[in-house]
Design brief:
This protein has helices spanning 3-14, 31-38, 70-77, 87-94, 139-146, and strands at residues 22-23, 45-53, 56-63, 66-68, 82-84, 111-115, 124-127, 133-137, 149-151, 154-156. It is an alpha/beta fold and 158 residues long.
């Protein structure tokens, strides 16, 4: 297993998470690609999106059926500006590459918002540290293992 996926798996075990990392047949850098391989609704994919919030990393776990409203998120976190992070910023903050960022397993804690829309699904799927690994979880478990804040972060797209 890739070191990033091993790190995520270790954190999941430490946190008492129910699911285990599985490897997909193909990389799944988008929510739609992951949903197709898993066989679940795209809304049940917990997209891990890293933003630059006034120079600080902010992880937003949003439903794959949502687009993040950065103005809404900025207001929620009290930032003057929230923008998509560069690939370098993402890797520095999480130790992982865009397309495979997991909700956990980062070098240091990252402030996290968890989309309330994910609570509509009994099971959600999150990235496992690289683009072709995922793990099953639940909305409540995501909040617990990330220390995240429940938030209305966007608008429905799918």
């Amino acid at each position: 297993m890739h070191p990033n996926a091993e790190r995520v798996a270790a954190v999941l075990r430490e946190q008492g998470a129910a699911g285990e990392i599985i490897e997909l047949p193909e990389p799944a850098p988008t929510a739609r690609a992951a949903a197709e391989q898993i066989g679940c609704p795209v809304g049940a994919i917990a997209n891990s999106l890293v933003f630059d919030a006034d120079g600080e990393p902010l992880l937003v776990l949003t439903s794959g059926a949502h687009r993040v409203d950065t103005a809404k998120v900025a207001a929620l976190v009290g930032a003057a500006k929230v923008a998509r992070a560069t690939p370098e910023f993402v890797r520095e903050a999480t130790g992982q590459a865009i397309g495979g960022v997991a909700p956990v397993g980062h070098p240091a804690p990252v402030r996290t918002l968890v989309d309330v829309w994910l609570d509509k699904y009994d099971q959600v799927w999150a990235a496992g540290g690289i683009a072709h690994t995922v793990f099953p979880t639940s909305y409540k478990e995501l909040l617990r293992i990330t220390g995240g804040e429940a938030a209305d972060v966007g608008v429905e797209t799918a």
